[in-house]
Design a protein that fits this description.
disordered N terminus; single chain; elongated; Porin; 16-stranded antiparallel barrel; alpha+beta; 443 residues
């Protein structure tokens, strides 16, 4: 035991020295452990923050499922809407139903000639008032498959009920119809439409059964035609649109004489129009287009020429103002649509002589408010007096205006007032005032 005690006393200094050497090393180890623990805590904090951020930006699986179901429901609703409005042809190509349900309440002063909307002031006839829906329009627009050489086929057919007279004796009639193939800068068309040289017309909800300002400068008669159109570009904002074609005129009521004369009912004609256009910016543009017509009337064993030069235009110097119109000058123009002015040609010593005419129309459009538009218009048809007999119409003039108020995106309320002044050679001037309240539903 004494020996063991001596060994313990001898080893004690060495143990003390060893402990003195290991104490700094242990402190370093503990310090490193503390740093690792702090780093681990910081990493855990960052991981928790990242998880929270991901959970806020990416929806959970149930949320994703709900979003997908909502999108599917929207698509199904759109498909149902399309199924309700879609009309499909037998060839399984889409057809769009379009048109206008139009109600007119009107009043005419004396010398209306018994017409709802007279085109000449008659020498007789009391005042007239009434209401009608026979100017309503029903149309079908179609688009077909790709045609030869990459062309696209489209067209339309429009009808109304203007042939009827009594409120319940309405008869549907064809207005216009076309089949057209378009390429990048060229198109061909066949159908029934306004004259090629005069595609523009004034704005009116009162006179829809035939074009506004008929008989007072607007040659509008819908006629069978086939035409070719070619576009030429002069940069990004200017160019020329050339249109040339053949038409079939309607020669009825063209004779200005009193003796009966046999007239060939229809004749071929050649027409053209060349539109020069320039776009100043997204809201302002200028269009001006000269045109022509030439054909020959066969009547009483003679051939009477029908030639005409025209020019039409559109210009909006500022966004809210537009000016449009047309002018023509020629001879024997009745077959192109002059209403009740039946003065295309006469006979002198057995030879057919054309009646020389000039005329045109102009319209100023003012877009005052997003829902309100004003249109001021005037037009005149003037035949050369020396070509006419006493009692014939020497001049027919109309001026007036209307306003459109948009009750809803597709519902228009319109008011129009106009005055028609017809000059009869040797019989003075007849005047008719027209007032019209219209309600139109566009579909």
């Amino acid at each position: 035991m004494l020996r063991a005690l001596n060994l313990l006393i001898t080893a004690l200094p060495f143990a003390t020295a060893l402990c003195a050497q290991n104490t700094p090393d242990m402190a370093g180890v503990l310090s490193r452990l503390d740093r690792l623990e702090r780093q681990n805590e910081e990493l855990l904090t960052e991981i928790r923050a990242l998880r929270a951020e991901l959970s806020s930006t990416q929806p959970s699986v149930p949320a994703q499922t709900a979003a997908v179901e909502q999108k599917l429901q929207i698509q199904e609703n759109r498909i149902d809407e399309q199924a309700q409005s879609k009309v499909e042809s037998s060839q399984r190509f889409p057809i769009r139903l379009t048109g206008m349900a139009l109600f007119n309440a009107f009043a005419d002063s004396r010398q209306s000639g018994g017409a709802d909307y007279p085109t000449v002031a008659s020498a007789t006839g009391p005042g007239r008032a009434g209401a009608t829906v026979r100017q309503s329009i029903v149309g079908l627009e179609f688009r077909g498959p790709e045609a030869i050489w990459g062309g696209r086929v489209h067209g339309s057919v429009y009808m109304d009920f203007f042939s009827g007279t009594a409120p319940l004796a309405l008869t549907m009639r064809l207005r216009t119809g076309s089949i057209q193939i378009d390429w990048a800068s060229r198109s061909v068309m066949a159908g029934i439409d306004k004259p090629i040289f005069n595609p523009r017309e004034p704005s009116s909800l009162a006179q829809v059964g035939f074009s506004p300002l008929t008989g007072t400068g607007n040659l509008w008669l819908w006629m069978p035609q086939a035409r070719v159109e070619q576009d030429f570009s002069f940069g990004r904002s200017s160019g020329v649109r050339a249109r040339v074609g053949v038409v079939q005129t309607r020669e009825f009521n063209a004779y200005a004489g009193s003796d009966p004369v046999a007239v060939e009912a229809s004749r071929p004609g050649l027409e053209g129009r060349f539109e020069f256009f320039h776009k100043f910016d997204d809201e302002r543009r200028l269009e001006i287009a000269p045109g022509f017509h030439t054909s020959t009337t066969h009547a009483g064993g003679d051939s009477i020429p029908s030639n005409l030069f025209s020019i039409d235009w559109f210009y909006n110097p500022v966004r809210r103002i537009e000016f449009s119109g047309a002018y023509f000058r020629g001879k024997n123009v009745v077959a192109l649509g002059t209403g009740l002015i039946r003065q295309g040609f006469g006979f002198d010593d057995g030879f057919g002589e054309p009646v020389h005419s000039q005329g045109g129309w102009g319209q100023l459009t003012i877009h005052t408010l997003p829902r309100l538009d004003f249109h001021l218009f005037s037009g005149q048809h003037d035949d050369r007096n020396s070509d006419l007999l006493t009692g014939a119409i020497g001049k027919n003039l109309m001026f007036g205006g209307n306003l459109y108020f948009r009750i809803a995106p597709n519902v228009l309320l319109g008011w129009e007032t106009s005055q028609l002044r017809t000059v009869y050679l040797g019989q003075g001037t007849r005047i008719n005032n027209h007032y019209d309240l219209a309600l139109a539903y566009l579909f």
